[in-house]
Design brief:
Helices cover about 35% and strands about 20% of the residues. It has about 150 residues and is of the alpha+beta class. Strands 4-3-5-6 form a 4-stranded antiparallel β-sheet, with helices on one face. Strands 1-2 form a two-stranded antiparallel sheet.
């Protein structure tokens, strides 16, 4: 039969200072909490933000691909541009997308003047998504807007 040794004080009473059998279990709980709150939750915030950004960017690219095959017929006519915008889908993959047509090289919003119709024309799509970060609230945006630009001439 094995005998458990414990340290004793001079007066013969048992001391718990020498018995450290449960110390590792107690320290592990503290280390676990520090790791979860300082490492894993911020990484989860970044992962969620990354997935939302990639999804929104892909929705914008999908809209760009859609408009590449059906551009507005006449960028000088406001009614044609309005009809073109209303024919586009309002949401793609749950993201509300706002299309704009620009003419010229710094870019003026269409309808274009008849002389500027032959100059570079391009689309700009924008969407907004929201984040609710658990830890990185001050470092990440809560309402993020991204844009995607594509030339169509």
């Amino acid at each position: 039969m094995s005998e458990v040794r414990t340290s004793r004080h001079k007066n013969g009473k048992r001391s718990f200072v020498g018995d450290q059998r449960g110390a590792a279990a107690f320290e592990m709980a503290i280390i676990y909490l520090v790791l979860v709150f300082s490492l894993l939750l911020p990484l989860a915030d970044l992962a969620i933000a990354g997935f939302r950004f990639i999804s929104a960017q892909q929705a914008l690219r999908d809209m760009g691909q859609r408009t590449q095959y059906s551009p507005p017929a006449d960028v000088t006519d406001p009614s044609v541009i309005s009809a073109w915008k209303s024919a586009l889908p309002a949401t793609i993959s749950g993201f509300t997308i706002t299309p704009q047509v620009y003419c010229g090289s710094p870019g003026t919003v269409a309808p274009c003047s008849s002389g500027a119709a032959s100059i570079v024309k391009y689309y700009t799509f924008s969407t907004t998504f929201t984040l609710t970060p658990m830890v990185l609230g001050s470092a990440l945006c809560s309402s993020c807007t991204i844009t995607y630009t594509q030339r169509f001439q």
